# Entry
Amino acid sequence: MVPMPPKLRLTKEQIGLLRREDEVRRVAAGEVLFREGDRGYDFIVILAGRVAIVDHQAETERELAPGEPGQFVAELGLLTGERLFTTAVVTEPAEVLAVPVARLHAVIGQDQGLGQWIIRTMFARRQWLMQMQTGMRIVGSRSSPQTRRLLEFAVRNRLPHVWLDTDTDLAAGVVLAHHNTPVSQTPVVVMRGGEVLRQPSNAELARAAGIGTGPAAGMTYDVAIIGAGPAGLAAAVYGASEGLSTALVDAVAVGGQIGTTSRLVPARQVRGAGVPSLERLAYLVEAAQRQLQGIRHMVLAGARSPVSFFAYPGQPSDLVPGGASVCTLADGTEDVTATLEALADRVAPVTAPQLADLAPPAAPTGALDVNTLAAAVGATLPENVIVVDAAQTSSPGLPAATANAARHDWITETGGAIGQGLPTALGAAIAAPDRQVCVCRPTAAPCTPTRRCGRWPANRPT
Amino acid sequence: MAREQANVTTILVNNDAYAILRLELQRVGAGPAGEAGPAARRMLDLSDPSINHTTIAQGFGVDAIHVSTADELVASLRRAYAEPGPHLIEAAVPALL
# Structure
């Protein structure tokens, strides 16, 4: 089934906020408003007429969506400077409002409601465009580490892309032939607009896609922050808000371990009554080894082979029991849910899942310790709460005490990102304003007053 | 959180210690934290001074309470979930190690 594009129209009032008469243009049918591969364009609101959003593969044009009066024609990359991967062409004589990006920034800076609406619409559009298989083509073999690196880079940076596997996909050969490229030069990335990158580094791909800015020539920065994880991002915001020229550098993508959490622990897990109860792998090597003892075949679905977070003297880093085989059923670039459903249909078609009952622990009384703390959280947890578990040594009882609580979401600190709890909780609360968030966090974290870092980041202007 | 009036209930588990690092110190072969040298012990002891996180939160205008029994924690959690905006519950819990 082809997913439907999000069809959202600006209201008359919103158009009024954006409109300036000298930016209204009449455009003829056939005129191209912007083109795949372009690096910058105006924010275009269709006032009358029709515009089509199309893309091209080889020489074939495909219509993705119609643009009608009241809609705006712009993509998330307009704000980030990414290169375009769609083309907008006028199909019926039209009148459009072409707002330059700088003025768009000024308008949405003044009207937060409009700004948030535009950004949300852009996110929905990006999700849809990714489902529509737009964007760059990454052509390479599944057994090539270079291909894996490029795919990870695209996934972590949310770059729309299609992977053509030279081992299994006939289309890979067609694309390579079209660009006169032998398989020995793969992985190859074909950008929208036709630019071909042969075995590019992450930095080369970033430059071609227009993400990140690179250092400004001749500029001396006050602060350089290496690593754009949660702490690096916070530091960059503080640096910039204090008026320092700030450079933020990362080898792969913004987000750091938050973007790779699924390799250590599930990034977000739905738990509680009515949901199958899944045990997570323990943090300590010997505890994880006990959980995995006796396993002969490990099947990976959307996860990597488990490893210990830290290396300890005399203890293994690889958690796979000796002699066990490891098989990758689906990696992070494939549809894990559909794969698991297909497998379940094949091997156990009439099996009903075992769902957790609603049976929270009784409210504890008496002295407070890690066990009664966990029971208190489990006993009081309201339905639909988002729990952020960052309590380190005080949290071992929490999963068991909440397994039969009302249905909830669980976000686990990644293991090494001590201090991640509060920023994660604040982010969850802003992303889901109609839900309650409960964060369990320790005294000791890089954000205690024992260190020189603000405990309440949201109190500072950002 | 105060500025955003975010619906976040923070349970700050106060054990006056950097217990995760006591654990890691032990696990890299340095022996039990109690047997570590005085400098290492002091680094991981947060009881001197013992920080009053409840008054710090109140200073930011955040509703905050200190609890030292399970009954108080249960009652405070129920109240925090029922009232919008940020809440801090500082729970005094002995360190595991």
Notes: Chain A touches chain B through 49 residues (CB under 8 Å). Residues 446-462 of chain A have pLDDT under 50 and may be disordered.
